[in-house]
Amino acid sequence: MLFDFFPSRTLTIYLAKTFFLRIFAVLIMLVAILQMLDLLTESADILAYPGNSEAQLWTYVTLRVPQLIARFLPYSVLLATIITLATLNQNSEVIAMKSAGMSAHQILAPLLITAAVIAGLSFTFNERIVTRSTATLKAWSAADYGPVPTESAVRSNVYLNDGGDILYAAVVSGSGDNIVMSGVTYYQRDERGMITRELRSEDAHYANPGWRLKSPTLFDVQTADTRSLGEDLLIARGLTPRQVEISSVDPDSQPLPQLSASIASLRDANRPTAELEGKWWHKISGPLSAVLMPLLGAVAGFGLARSGQLFVRAVIGMALGFAYFVVDNAALAMGSFGGYPPFLAAWLPFFLFLLVGETVLIRTEE
């Protein structure tokens, strides 16, 4: 029988609906609290820009909330798992289901299916919304919360080498020959690597070849003299738009197809790609971690509620879930430094805790 693994249709819908509503409630609670704390931290910087008001605060909220949802959705699934199973256990519903001949895996099946749906929605949400809001928010923050960038392919805090000199741009927007840099600083250095002059400009455009600074201001380090040149200046003649594009890859701001193209371009230029490849795989394994949470938190739903160990079981389930997130972040960091291959860094924690969860469930309940 193909569907013997699941309980009855009525019970499956009941468990899935209860679980989904609690995920949604916990997520709203977490995002609301964290957004208020984050807004208290950033509101002073946002309102410091001349002309900004309450409208800009709401703009910040709309850009920040998708990031918070993406980051804390797996935590919400974990907490919802513990709340749901602990409540079922305390109300003797788990005992009733096991008395009817259901195994622990059959009780968890509706929760796992719901978590899989949540993982799919999370992946789509991250690819379609979170990447765009992250790119815009980073560029807006780099512009000190001035006018919100509306161009495509917005990148922030870009550093480029022009021989011994360094070109910095707070915001880079556009692509190809239409790339525009804003908040530009050009550091000219001597043969010892010491900065001798700084050229600052509001923006720079590609002049093919080189980049044209608009009415730059010159600061001479030796004389501490600052003066406006009063006319445009051409710099970095050897720097091409393609070099700008591949030097400012932000994996959090790019969906999978675009990130794949960026990795291929960097690989063709013989540049390291291990960190980006790890982030590529983690864009899949990250949302899929929601499927692990019912398994890791399942220990809270079994055992006798009257034994006095329900709280201890809930703490153990929470500890297993949070241990996964710690190991996941550590593995991703190790992959960025070259300690693990990118694929292993992204997937090892998932499969490790899948085995841990299954082992705990089988040894204690099956």
Automatic annotation (TrEMBL):
Instruction: Look up the record and report any one GO term of the cellular component aspect.
Output: ATP-binding cassette (ABC) transporter complex
Question: Which Gene Ontology terms describe the biological processes this protein takes part in?
Answer: lipopolysaccharide transport; transmembrane transport
- The primary site where this protein sits is membrane
**What parts of the sequence cross the membrane?**
19-37, 68-86, 107-125, 310-327, 339-362
Kindly state which keywords UniProt assigns to this record, in alphabetical order. Cell membrane, Membrane, Transmembrane, Transmembrane helix
Instruction: Tell me the compartments it is located in.
Output: Cell membrane
How does the entry describe its membrane topology?
Answer: Multi-pass membrane protein
Under the heading NCBIfam families, the entry gives: LptG_lptG
Q: What is this protein called?
A: LPS export ABC transporter permease LptG
